[in-house]
Amino acid sequence: MSDSIIPMIPCNVSGPLGVLHLPRLWLKVSLEARGKLAPGYPGIGKGFDSMVIAGLGLSADAVKAYVAEKKPSYGQFEAWVKEQPGVKLDRASVYKLNQSILGYHHSDDLRKEILGAAGYPDNGSVQGSAVELNALDDWTAFHNSVLK
């Protein structure tokens, strides 16, 4: 396996706090901080990463700094999230954030790009939510970089 790692935790996975995508965000930021995140993957991107950070009331800079400095396990990262001033972890806030993640769809162009790279026709046979497309994109990248 190469020195760069494709983040294989799907977007629709949560940890004990129940926040979807938070484990993937931790993994991506952790890999980026160590120079091991696969090319094409941002540590904190404009999509789900930013949605989670904003939805929880966190600062992207604080997340990056904490992960880079402390190199936390996932449990330590969740504990840090819970300690942040103004963090929104009440049931209603987490539900709203999770629903926004599950209901998000990529643009038609991005959907076509991901499906094409994975060898799927763009004929409606794939559900096409961003969660499913991101997983398909990860599996395609993993196959191309590790299994081919």
Q: Can you walk me through this structure?
A:
It is a single chain. By secondary structure, this protein is mostly helical. It has two domains: 104 residues, no CATH class; 44 residues, no CATH class. Helix content is 56%, strand content 0%. It is built from seven helices and no strands. The longest helix has 18 residues.
The gist of it:
By secondary structure, the chain is an all-alpha fold.
Summary tags:
single chain; 148 residues; mainly alpha; 2 domains; 7 helices; 56% helix; globular
Helix-strand blueprint:
Layout: H1 22-33, H2 48-56, H3 60-70, H4 74-83, H5 91-102, H6 108-118, H7 130-147
Helix pairs in contact: 1-3, 2-5, 6-7
Structural class: mainly alpha
Give the H and E element order: HHHHHHH
Gross morphology: globular
Largest sheet: none
Q: How many separate helices?
A: 7
Tell me what portion of residues adopts beta-strand conformation: under 5%
Through-space gap between termini: 11 Å
Parts with pLDDT < 50 across at least 5 consecutive residues = none
Number of structural domains: 2
Q: What is the typical, i.e. mean, pLDDT? A: 95
The helix fraction, in percent, is 55-70%
